[in-house]
Design goal:
The chain is α+β, with helices and mostly antiparallel strands. Helix content is about 35%, strand content about 20%.
Length: about 210
């Protein structure tokens, strides 16, 4: 696991970190690096209009941000990844020790998910947009349940609550546009973003092309 990425998520740049905190970070990196997690994805054609329809499914993608992200794509990857309920339990137990322990473990879990997603798309030899998840930009979180159903997310133990939250909590779903030619669709939709009041810019700082 990339220690620099963990530190970036924690908000550290070039600051000195005391030995105790360094040890906590290293210990959690070691633990989370061993979590294999589970991923699932499918490739679909899309049709564009006032909204984007994922063909042969009941999934429709609405919003200016997703329209832009997929403006140069004819197909999409619909994906899900989860670290499993074990990691949720680990984070809960860490919360009983201290908020610092909980935060470090939570961040390491987030970085581990990003690594699994990077590994998932490594073998796909096509140009890809940035990953875009329900709740990003103005793509409503309410599509979460349909998205998970479309790719049969239960096969990796993933379910969605009535409020569109994922269980296990350390899970991510989303969309990646595909094209045979290079695309220029880096995003930053702060004005439209549903997370604009709580975002710490980790999402936008992970722009990929």
């Amino acid at each position: 696991m990339d220690r620099k990425e963990v530190l970036r998520y924690l908000g550290y740049e070039d600051q000195d970190i005391d030995d105790d905190l360094n040890q906590k970070i290293d210990d959690n990196i070691e633990v989370l690096s061993k979590i294999k997690g589970r991923t699932i994805y499918q490739v679909f054609d899309i049709a564009k209009g006032d909204m984007i329809s994922v063909e042969n499914t009941k999934l429709f993608l609405k919003g200016r941000s997703i329209q832009y992200i997929l403006s140069q794509s004819k197909q999409v990857i619909i994906f899900a990844v989860t670290l499993g309920s074990e990691v949720d339990q680990m984070i809960l137990k860490a919360s009983y020790l201290s908020k610092v322990d909980q935060m470090i473990l939570d961040v390491c879990a987030s970085v581990r998910i990003e690594e699994l997603l990077d590994e998932m798309v490594e073998g796909i030899d096509r140009h890809q947009t940035p990953r875009f998840s329900p709740g990003y930009g103005d793509l409503d979180l309410s599509i979460q349940k349909t998205l998970v159903e479309v790719i049969h997310g239960r096969r990796i133990g993933l379910t969605v609550t009535d409020s569109s939250l994922l269980i296990p909590k350390k899970s991510v779903t989303g969309i990646i546009g595909l094209s045979d030619s290079e695309m220029d669709v880096a995003y930053r939709f702060c004005d439209d973003c549903l997370k604009r009041t709580s975002c710490d810019f980790k999402i936008c700082s992970r722009e990929k092309s």
